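Progress against Task 2.4 (sequence-to-structure conversion) is shown through the following example record, which the project officer requested during the mid-term review.
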Amino acid sequence: MHYLYMAVIAAVVLGVIVGFVAPEFAKELKPLGTGFVNLIKMMISPIIFCTIVLGIGSVAKAAKVGKVGIMALVYFMVMSTFALAIGLVVGNLLHPGEGLQLSASAAAKAQEQAEGAAGGVEFLLGIIPTSLVSAFTAGSVLQTLLVAVLAGFALLKLGKAGKPILRGLEHIQRLVFRILAMIMWAAPVGAFGAIAAVVGETGWGALKSLAVIMIGFYATCLVFVFGVLGTVLWLGARVNILSLLRYLAREFLLIVSTSSSESALPRLIAKMEHLGVSRPVVGITVPTGYSFNLDGTAIYLTMATLFIASAQGSPLGIGEQISLLLFMIIAAKGAAGVSGAGIATLAGGLQSHRPDLVDGVGFILGIDRFMSEARALTNFAGNAVATVLIGSWTKEFDRDQAEAVFAGRAPFDETTLIDDHEPAPPGPQDDERETAAVR
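Structure tokens generated for the chain above:
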């Protein structure tokens, strides 16, 4: 993905140049961005179906391990909601995209949609598909979500008989994300067309708005990590956030180079155990957190949504913001470490609530790669903090070991790094700790 990252940057720069040098020609390039957005929209339904069904299975699995799983899930929900609220506050203060007016008809479309959605009964009936298959072909994300929720709980009821189906869905999910990865190779073309067309239409206003949202997003992530997570970590475990982040410095560099927190998952598991958190707690908290503890994603989806709506002259009301973003957070479960999943989730949320705004996704595509690092780093930091906190709260955290690690007296041995995404099976020496953790 390193070459793709550089290609997107080059495409954005080229698009800006074309937009200024030949604005009329640049406007004709808009179909390139629209075509890429359509490719993303094509993947929305299968992505949401797989992630929701498997996400429900993950919740059930985590809940079975006792207080560790329940405590982790409650913590994840609280922190994701907090991140969502921070993103809403900052987004409404900055008003990113305001004044761009990318589409003169956007406001009219929004008004028509609001009037058409006035009937609650008609809206509810629209969520129910005519068949299970039509939920995937009609282009209705809410219908897909309904089918996914029903399928997820049905598989839970099947118990052991449903496990082969879940394993099959995991393979399908890998296929879906592989297709998405292939589509993302067209991102430079889409970014070039979208940025060139917008700069051709709006000039310097577009660049200014992009700079505002990007700087605002990075600043919000920094405030969340050092202000919110740092405070929670100190109050809950008496651990300094700077010491923890310094200990994970190599993992942060790995994430920056790949734009994905998934690449550092095995190292996080190994390092959290080395820090002094018991293996059962790490084995429960870290994998579950990668699906449900999406602080950076919550902030990103919030600010990107407000930016797209404002840029098209159709700002969202507070109630509409909350309902749309809660949907996005649910739809994003299980896709936190996948490159391109943020754009797919953003497009899916807009398609379900405000279809008239979906084309704006092509505009933000140009800076999505810049924002993906902050998104992944924030998600990773949130999961590291959560693991230490859950370990401390369940008394499964060796504080003496942690102090030795932070002081450099117990350096991490790279040869002990596990190669799988799952922790190694507990040995006999871990039986007592595991029993205490899940009791």
